[in-house]
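FORM 7B: Structural annotation worksheet

SECTION A. Query
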Amino acid sequence: MRNACVALLFLGFQSAAAQTSVAPDTTRAAELLVVEQDWRGPEDSVVVRLRKGGVYRAEVLGTSAPLTAVAQDPPRYPAFVYQRDGAGADGSLVFELHPARSALHVLKLAGMTPGSEVVLRVYSNELEAQRFAQEKDRKWGIGLALAAGFHSSYRLEPVSGIDPAGGSAMEGCLVLDSGRGVSGCLGGGYESLPGMDYGIEWAFAEARVQLLSGRLIGDRLSQAGILFRAAQGGATRSRNID
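SECTION B. Predicted structure
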């Protein structure tokens, strides 16, 4: 059996899968009017481009019908829409929209009474979106990390007369992220040793400490930090030592 303990720098990218509502922004100075539309009946709708990761506030004046928002092109993912408590200053219903993808969305009112006069206003708020993203990043998460590549030559048996060569490597682990800059990983891997009649299987545990984070690729969270790995390995097949 072989034991190893290493410390490495790591780079990571992740995309959160779940979204939850956060407290609404108390100021509206950062809001931008995206669309304003008058509706007269249940067949009326409006198409507007919504961005994944954005936070939108919709005001509906003149009806109590719920608002829906669905991506126009397949796959027609619906945006997450929930009605805020209370009403707007003019008595309007207030909804919050969280798109599942960046795309054109069709906004409609479900069950609107024919002949009604309804006004819809949709606002975007970049500060609210940033605060929502930060809140989401601080939540704990669980995921799976997979990697494959190549390794350089190294000797496990100093007494052996065979010079091993570099080979392929693959590994996977279950990642537990605290959302506070510290995470852990439990997994295993395999390394081939060309020229030898066996490979090496590894079981390892990692502790990861985040040093930097940001959004470099779209809405994906990019991280850089340091990890500490403790591993134990063994040959997959025994052989006679020369």
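SECTION C. Observations
Residues 126-137 form the longest helix (12 residues). The longest strand covers residues 200-217.

SECTION D. Sign-off
Analyst initials: ____
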